[in-house]
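Predict structure. Chain length: 351.
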Amino acid sequence: MNARERMLAAMNHEKPDRIPTDIWATPEVWQRVRQHFGPEADLYCELHIDGIASVGAKYVGPPLPQVAEHDSINYWGMRQRRMDYGTGTYYEQYFYPLAYAQTLEDLEQYQWPEADWFDYSEMRAAAASAREKQVLLCGYMCPFFYHNLLRGLETSLMDPVDDSEFTHHLLNRLCDFFYEHHLRMFESCEGLIDLAHVTDDYGSQTGPLIGLATWREFYKPHMQRFIDLCHGFGIKVFHHDDGAIRPFIPEFIAMGIEILNPVQSTCPGMEREGLKRDFGRDLCFHGGIDNQQVLPFGTPEQVRAEVRDAIDTLASDGTGYILAPCHNLQPVTPLENILAMYDEAWKYGRL
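Prediction complete.
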């Protein structure tokens, strides 16, 4: 099988020739891996990574404001600043464009993005090329997360309690843009896209950030609308959700989510064996390799043991699992542990 065939087999709960693999990593990690293999090396080939290709529309909307040298701004008006922590460099958001909005009028004064701000004309050719060897992902729809980014985390968590009408109006405006933008992308690439993100981050290290009742009222209807949009184009739904989110999983399945990432098995209720037992018939799991302790601080042999256990549990029936780190590989992760993870997946994951 090639990378595309292998990934599709796992997603469709068919047996691939080996467990497929993917990677998320910070720029510093990519630089270190390139230095190890050499500038001309195909890193995906060297590490036996199948990976996921992506395609998107080009922004052609209103010019973005000038910002300071180490800052960035996007078309939402969200501002980030480049922060060097010694062990890694990250862009941290410091400005939330709707942080001080209080009324429906305030929300209407905000310049909401429009689908017309994007050029979709080049997408189909790019998609046709990208999907020749890899599965193809397009889109990122996430009502709760973007509510956080527009208002700030604490304020967004309080919004449903403080003012339900305000919150519904904000989410309607936000999600109407998401829907129209993705509809145009899917139409441009009809028949070519394999996956789309309908995603969010409801989990903390110990449990959900919000209750099911709040989620059902404010966020679930928008997610269902996005999932139905994807399925209308024959696109599978990839859902990223860090932390302890087990209470949500049965509803995710009922809504039509097919791939669950990142399987943070150290969190309560997220043990790999239990997830596979209870939800493995419906979900393909993506991730599963601990990125908080084992990868950054374990030995290469501990990493290899983690890989074997993940395969034995999440692919206990020989399918339904794509091996990857639970999130971006961080600069504190030793190169030898990264090499060990993919080498063990290559050797042990052959079925």
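Summary: The chain is about 45% helix and 15% strand.
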